[in-house]
Amino acid sequence: MMMKTLLITTLLAAAFAFADEVKSPAHSKLDCAQCHDGATLRKFKQVQKRLGRDAAPGWDRVAEAIPLHEAAMRALSAKCADCHGKQAREMAASGHAITYAQSFLNREHNRMEPPMDDCLRCHAMFFDGAAKDLVQPIDTRGPWRLTDEKIAGHRSILCVSCHQIHPERWLSSPSKSEEAPQLVGGAVVSKAGFFDRRERQFFPADSLPHPKVFKDGKPLQMSEDARIRVCYQCHAPSAAHQAGTSDDRTLRGVHEGMSCLDCHATHSLDTRRSCAQCHPAVSNCGLDVTRMDTTARAKASQHDIHTMTCGDCHAQAPKTRP
C-alpha cells in the first residue's frame, strides 16, 4: 500500500511539475484550477514541494497513467462542459451517455453472458474495483443489483475515456475526417484515443491496432480513418475476428470500407443526415434512398445499414437511368 501511495504521489507531482510543458494549444491558457478542484491542487503542490522537480519521473507516460479515482475523473469530465457545451449536450443525447444501471443491469445481455471484468474495459474504465465489486451476482440467472445503488444514474463512459487532457507528444498521420489535426511542436496530434484501465494509460488513436475483420474467410476492406480504431476497442468482433460476432459493427455489403464517422457524428452519433452526404435525393436506379426499408429509416427494418447489399432491395441488377 505504501509503495502504491508513493507511486501515485510521485506521478501526480510529475504532472504538475511539467504541466506548463504539456498543455495542448487549446488548453495552454487555462489555469489548472479551471479543471482541478482546490483540494487536489493543494495535495499535488505539497507532494511536488516535498519530492522536488528532479525527483519526479519524466513526462513520457505520466499524464494519463495517473491512477486518479473515479469520482475525480467524473468531476473532471463534468468540467469539460464549461467550454465544450455543444459537444457535452450531444454526448448526453447519444448512446454513449449510458449509465451504470443500463450497462450492468441489462437482463437480456446478462442472461447471455454474466457480468465480467472485461465489461469494465469499455463500460466502467475508471471504476475503482472489479466486476464483483460493481454488480452482483456474477452469473446468468440474476436478479442483478448494483453493489452501490447511488451510482446507478452515473455515466459509465466519460469525456476522458476518449480524450486525453494533457496530450503526450506522439506522432500521428492526418486522418480523412471533419476534425483538423492538431499541431504540437510541429507534430500532428490525434484528438481521440482510448484509456486502458489495465495499463492505466491513454493510447492515442494512431497508436492503436488497425482492425482486421474477416467474412467467409476473406478480409473485409477497412477504412484508413484512424478514429475507427477507437470504435473497435468496444465494438469489436470476437477473438476470431469474424464479422458480426460479439459487438461487431463492421460495414460490409454496399458500404464496405467506409469509416464509422462517415455516417455517425462524433459526439451525438447522429446519422440522420448521413445518407444525403453521399446519395442524391433520387438514386441512379430511380429509388429515393432515404425512403428505402433500412435501419437508417426504421430500427425494426430487416435490412441493417451495416450489412445491406444491393440484393436486399433489388430482385435483379438495377438498370442505369439514361
Structural class: alpha+beta
Instruction: Please provide the ordered H/E string of secondary-structure elements.
Output: HHHHHHHHHEEHEEEEEEHH
**Sequence stretches where pLDDT stays below 50 over 5 or more residues:** 1-23, 54-67, 169-189
Number of strands: 8
In terms of topology, how is this protein built?
Blueprint: H1 2-17, H2 19-22, H3 38-51, H4 70-83, H5 85-92, H6 100-104, H7 107-112, H8 120-123, H9 131-134, E1 135-136, E2 145-146, H10 159-162, E3 182-184, E4 187-189, E5 193-196, E6 201-204, E7 214-215, E8 218-219, H11 228-231, H12 274-278
Antiparallel strand pairs: 1-2, 3-4, 5-6, 7-8
Helix pairs in contact: 1-3, 4-5
Characterization of this structure:
The protein is built from 12 helices and 8 strands. Strands 1-2 form a two-stranded antiparallel sheet. It has a two-stranded antiparallel ribbon with strand order 3-4. It has a two-stranded antiparallel ribbon with strand order 5-6. The chain starts with a helix and ends in a 44-residue tail after the last helix. Strand 1 and strand 2 form a beta hairpin. Among the domains are: 1-62, no CATH class; 99-151, no CATH class; 273-322, no CATH class. Helix 1 packs across helix 3. The longest helix has 16 residues, at 2-17. By secondary structure, the chain is an alpha+beta fold.
Keywords for this entry:
single chain, about 325 residues, alpha+beta, two-stranded antiparallel sheet, two-stranded antiparallel ribbon, 12 helices, 8 strands, about 25% helix
In short:
With 322 residues, the protein is α+β, with helices and mostly antiparallel strands. It contains twelve helices and eight strands.
